[in-house]
Amino acid sequence: MSEPQQLTGWRHVYSGKVRDLYASEADDSLVLVVASDRISAYDHVLATPIPDKGAILTALTLWWFEQLDGAGLGVQGHLASTDVPGPVAGRAMICRRLEMVPVECVARGYLTGSGLAEYRVDGSVCGVQLPPGLDDGSRLAEPIFTPARKAEVGEHDENVSFETVAADVGLETAEALREKTLRIYAWAEQLTRDRGVILADTKLEFGREPGGADEGGDLILGDEVLTPDSSRFWPADQWQPGRRQLSFDKQYVRDWLTSPASGWDRAGDTSPPPLPDEVVERTRDRYVEAYELITGHRWR
Known about the structure:
The protein is an alpha+beta fold. Helix content is about 30%, strand content about 25%.
């Protein structure tokens, strides 16, 4: 992983798989969230970046926060300003500092990925029983909340039940997380569907302002929002249950890594190889296409 940039007035405090976090040296209520061009797959941060990826993720997150402001959902976001330092302009946000709730809040409206793998074992996902006969890509009768415990960089998030979340963070907080997550998903799923895109599932994160960390404190939406890194987006006109869906995300990278062409053994202890130019270009194209279809804006 590359070294984070040194930015005047900001102190680097953390680097995740994709984002770098800085604390303000002038105002301890603010943080700077910088989206890099790094890409991760199978719990590895890959050596090859995807050009413009950080800028696309940031632009899409900002667009979603703008839509949320006028949606009447009663959900606050952590965005404070886009007046960021020049070296990270276009791929960073100044945000309110939050004490994050240690839960990955996942909403699923379609069955695929790790949810499908769980379902095939016992007919349920994160303790939510589903009807028999569902297949890869099946639309669920109603969206479900399937939380996970957030893992460290290089580790895999652990799917857990609602009861486990309630035991970890308290019943009131768990219920609020579930309600807000499903409310945002239902709204966003309809919005993207109107644009010809299926939002199959998404991951959200919430936190509270320091000092409001009791169960009564308002939950604030943080991190990235409804991007190809945190969501599965499928072209609606090509959706077909029973097979892997075409997607606007890094699935092309995952497919190449597990193909004979990469020569990489996922079960081994070696890091993935560098990505070929063709894989980089096609992956970037998918991020651009997702941005343009969802927002209606041309990417620069």
